[in-house]
Structure formats: structure tokens, C-alpha cells
Amino acid sequence: MNKVHHTAIICSNYEVSKQFYLNVLRLEVISEVYREERQSYKLDLALNGDYIIELFSFPNPPERPSRPEACGLRHLAFEVDDLEKTIAHSKKYQVIAEPIRVDEFTNKRFTFIADPDDLPIEFYEK
Hints:
2,3-Dihydroxybiphenyl 1,2-Dioxygenase, domain 1; 4-stranded mixed sheet; alpha/beta
């Protein structure tokens, strides 16, 4: 294996999630297509030019537990330079971060926000 290629996310409200990933997380659009046969959008997103997320919409997707302690994908984590600046940016979009924690093994600071479908997103300070 070489690297993680991408993470696929199915959202319940495409326009709301699209705005979250573009504005709050500041990801860049690589391509966006509507697949009529599936009644589904597929939005390819990049971070600093690297393809990282496929955002999908499907009619009536089932709910899935997504808190960090639920079985399955625990969370998405993004490295950030300045945790306070990142938290302040999120707050502009009414996205509230949990209290800052400190990793007991690395002594690095981190926090969590949630995407519109309550998927945990971690910001981990460099």
C-alpha cells in the first residue's frame, strides 16, 4: 500500500453537507456529478490539492451511530497549525467545538466538531 486514497461519506442533506465541507473545513471541489440512475450526487473534495473525500447523497440513507465510541469509523482527523484559529473559524458557521483536550501520550492538543450528520471531525494541533 502507498497511502490512504480517500474517505467516502454518505450524507442525509447534500446541500447542507456540501456547504459544511466547503466552508467550515475549507476543502476544494475537484469534481461534482449527478448520477441520475442512482438519484445521487458525488462530490470529490481535496485538501491542499490532495484528493481526500467523496461526498455522496442517496435517497433516504439509513442512520448509523457515529459517535467516536460507536463501532465502525471512529472519526476523521485533520492536522491544524493553530487550534484556536480553527475553532474560531468553525464558530463563524455556528459549528461549536468540544472543549480542547490534550493527548496523554503526545501532549498535543485536539478537539472535535460534528458534520451535519453528526460525523465526528477531529482537529489535531501540529
